[in-house]
Design a protein that fits this description.
16 helices, 44% helix, globular
């Protein structure tokens, strides 16, 4: 009994010591007031803060979801549709401000920027028939993004872009997965795509090496079952109260812990990760998605392919897919011009898997493996050198496509 009590006191003391050290070290880091302000601004307000015009558009998908797109208008400019990753939002392409974020850089060059928010995130949480507290609202994964959200957005943008029959597309992470779904299932839309820029593209997941993700996936099925039994269908539950609480904890109490956790999930690279911006990132991170989206990704790990959602029920699979087991997506249908940007230290998409994707796609115009061996999954959006490493190269590809050089 004495040993057990001593062990409890020891563990408690170590935990308290850890929290104290974390708080002391964070207090040494002054958080810039400008960063804190940006962390609490919604996308349109952040765009306006930096002197750019902004519009908010509502786009209805065929299955009833109402999507929000934020536009940095440039009448007469070539339209660019930019799509965020899982749990992210339209803030992704403007979060670092005018000097580094791609949305602002392209706007300065005369492009008409459309920042889409896919279903279920903080800006796109309306449906014509279902309320977000109903399980039917959350019955989607990246598949529905690809067959409903993206086609609706492409058509909407082109309908408001006189003189243009094609758009440039930029996607990060899930923004690439959903695009490959659209190309596979709606190949006619590839004629409406001038170029597709794929940042940290995710399709095949056979060589993913994230310890956290791999451990979580082992228990994902029972965890998903428990969550659904408890009526939890959203991942992560998203609201202003929890977001502000998490932001304050990561800004003033556990800044080092939050930075470490982000690095562990995405790939450790403190050279490109500006720790002082943790309050900004956590202020906008976890914009919400469905539990089914997470599970669909989990099914891809070590599956040997890129498959539609498996309902683990032959009858349901037959009803949904016309077969006892889910079929693979036809990635070869994605025949528009595609530029791939990937890295070796990305724990959410392996460079080996991207090479397999490259060999499947019929029209790859750029295959760019980042030379920096530590470049990780979020550096494509948040990296200190993202402008010179990624964005300037993307702008050059788009310019060449526009000029007919590619």
């Amino acid at each position: 009994m004495f040993r057990i009590c001593s062990l409890k006191y020891l563990c408690g003391s170590l935990i308290c010591l850890y929290f104290s050290c974390n708080m002391v070290s964070c207090n040494l880091i002054e958080v810039d007031k400008n960063i804190l302000e940006d962390a609490n601004l919604i996308t349109p307000d952040l765009i306006k803060k930096y002197g750019y015009p902004v519009e908010t558009h509502k786009i209805q998908a065929k299955d009833g979801f109402v999507l929000t797109a934020h536009r940095i208008p440039k009448p007469g400019g070539q339209p660019v549709l930019m799509v965020h990753g899982l749990l992210d939002s339209s803030i992704a392409y403007v979060i670092l401000g005018p000097e580094r974020s791609l949305g602002f850089l392209l706007s300065d060059l005369g492009y008409d920027i459309w920042l889409l928010n896919t279903r279920g995130n903080r800006y796109s949480r309306k449906h014509k028939r279902f309320h977000r507290y109903q399980p039917q609202f959350w019955d989607f994964s990246f598949h529905e993004l690809g067959i409903y959200d993206l086609p609706a957005a492409v058509d909407y943008v082109l309908a408001r872009s006189k003189g243009f029959e094609q758009i440039h597309y930029v996607g990060h992470s899930q923004g690439t997965t959903s695009f490959f779904v659209m190309g596979s299932e709606r190949p006619a839309y590839m004629k409406k795509i001038k170029s597709m820029q794929a940042l940290a593209p995710v399709a095949y997941w056979d060589y993913i090496d994230s310890p956290i993700i791999l451990t979580f996936v082992k228990y994902l099925r029972p965890l998903a079952f428990i969550a659904k039994s408890l009526g939890i269908h959203e991942f992560l539950p998203e609201n202003d109260v929890w977001r502000r609480l998490g932001n304050k904890l990561c800004s003033f109490v556990f800044q080092n812990t939050c930075a470490y956790f982000i690095q562990e999930v995405m790939g450790v690279d403190f050279k490109q990760f500006n720790t002082s911006l943790v309050p900004l990132f956590t202020g906008h991170a976890s914009s919400g998605s469905s539990l089914k989206s997470l599970w669909h990704y989990g099914q891809q790990i070590h599956s040997g392919g890129f498959f539609k959602y498996d309902y683990y029920n032959s009858w349901e699979n037959r009803r949904r897919h016309g077969a006892d087991t889910p079929p693979q997506y036809k990635v070869a249908n994605v025949d528009c011009k595609v530029a791939l940007y990937y890295s070796k230290n990305d724990r959410l998409t392996s460079d080996i898997d991207v090479v397999r994707l490259r060999d499947t796609l019929p029209n790859v115009v750029l295959d760019y493996l980042i030379p920096d061996p530590l470049y990780n999954h979020v550096n494509f959006i948040w990296g200190n050198d993202v402008k010179t490493v990624i964005n300037d190269r993307m702008v050059e590809i788009m310019r060449k496509v526009d000029n007919g050089e590619l």
